[in-house]
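Feature request, filed as a ticket because there's no other form

It would be nice if the structure record came with a short human-readable summary line next to the tokens. Right now we just get the raw output. Example of a typical job, pasted below so the devs can see what we mean:
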Amino acid sequence: MNKAIILDRDGTIVKDGHYLKDPNKLRVYKGVVPALKLLKEKGWKIIIGTNQSGIGRGYFTLETLEKIHKELHKIFRKNHLQIDEIYFCPHHPNDKCHCRKPNLGMLQEAAKKHHLNLESCIVIGDKECDIQWGKNGGAKTILVLTGKGKKARLHSKARPDHISPTLPKAVQWILKHG
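Raw output as currently delivered:
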């Protein structure tokens, strides 16, 4: 079985663009790429799981999301980082689908495809649903205070295993406490 770092996208890896629909506005937080490269070097799989209800709400199309993810892969490749997978939920919250965080659809799909032991994985995100998602799957969780993280820290009922100011600081903590 493999271990993985399973990351939220908006507010965790990239600046939250509030229904980001323009690949040219994609901005990766400083230090994220080198931090993720360190994890890859230590044998962690890197997986992204993101709710993208902007599709279900009609704000942008699946093709737009694919362009954004293509741009994200391009940024990573340019910096010699290969992530393992991006999973997304395109549904409106009212659709009550199985894949929307904190439901387990994306985690279960990732676990099956990448032979993950979710108890050996760490879910990192900036929202309560990210932390609850990880908890629901039996993973360890880290709340980052970027994006909506500061608000989640104050108002969340879900308690992360660790709180970190940024993703790079979370990676330092993982490498130290593993």
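Something like this underneath would help us a lot:
Residues 127 and 147 are 8 Å apart (CA to CA).
The helical segments are 32-41, 53-56, 62-78, 105-114, 128-137, 149-155, 167-177.
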